[in-house]
Amino acid sequence: MGSVAEFANKQAIAGAFGRAAANYDVVAKLQQQTGEFLMQQVGEHSGKLVLDAGCGTGFFSHRWRQQGKQVIGLDLASGMLAHARKQLAADYYLQADIEHLGLADNSVDICFSNLVVQWCDDLSSALRELYRVTRPGGLILFSTLAKGSLYELKQAWSVVDNYQHINQFLPQQTIKDACQGFRHCLISQVYRQQYSHILPLLGSLKGIGATHLHDGRQQGLMTRGRLIALEQAYPRENEQLPLSYQVVFGVIHRD
């Protein structure tokens, strides 16, 4: 059973994503790029029932349905599920935590989880739970952010103050270790975005609901002076502000 603080953290994360639901797909280009690549990893697998674990607005639930699959859209955030329901994105909807799915053993053919498990307290626990609900012969497809993501922003903040503004992402070796008990394949890719100013860059993070920190709220108000200082400290490339994401894709075979 998780601690009260752990539960509160997850509620805060769910709230942040729920509030972002209406505008999420507009700004969530990274999620769409990684999700499309992750879908391609299914290959010729013929499974019909897909669990979209951390379905968000239902963007990829809808994509799976377009491919003739039946889809369970699962998310921790009620706001996201409500949005997905309005879009008729899935066949079934379930509000639950990836680490405690509330589904029977061997009940789905494919588990799909795009840029979600980095919010889990324990990656190994989340992967075991996804494995548990997948039928033998099925697939678990996941993508996650790894250490090195947002390093430019982290570097800029370190010049401005001593607070921890960037979430701690797992090293790639830790992700690899979490997969060791399964027949699996990992693929690592770097995605880079560029912004002309600091506000749209920060807005892209807020827009995906990713402003919550694992170890507490961001310290200090975002004043105009701090914004200017952050932009001045930010490393530039051709007058642009780069933002990098280190993404790890995993394919786990359910034996």
From TrEMBL:
It comes from the Bacteria. It catalyses: malonyl-[ACP] + S-adenosyl-L-methionine = malonyl-[ACP] methyl ester + S-adenosyl-L-homocysteine. One of its GO terms (molecular function) is carboxyl-O-methyltransferase activity. GO terms for biological process: biotin biosynthetic process; methylation. Residues 51-142 form the Methyltransferase type domain. The keyword S-adenosyl-L-methionine applies. Transmembrane segments: none annotated. Keywords: Biotin biosynthesis, Methyltransferase, S-adenosyl-L-methionine, Transferase. Its EC number is 2.1.1.197. Pathway: Cofactor biosynthesis; biotin biosynthesis. Belongs to the methyltransferase superfamily. PANTHER family: TRANS-ACONITATE 2-METHYLTRANSFERASE (PTHR43861:SF1), TRANS-ACONITATE 2-METHYLTRANSFERASE-RELATED (PTHR43861). Converts the free carboxyl group of a malonyl-thioester to its methyl ester by transfer of a methyl group from S-adenosyl-L-methionine (SAM). It allows to synthesize pimeloyl-ACP via the fatty acid synthetic pathway. This is Malonyl-[acyl-carrier protein] O-methyltransferase. It comes from Photorhabdus laumondii subsp. laumondii (Photorhabdus luminescens subsp. laumondii).
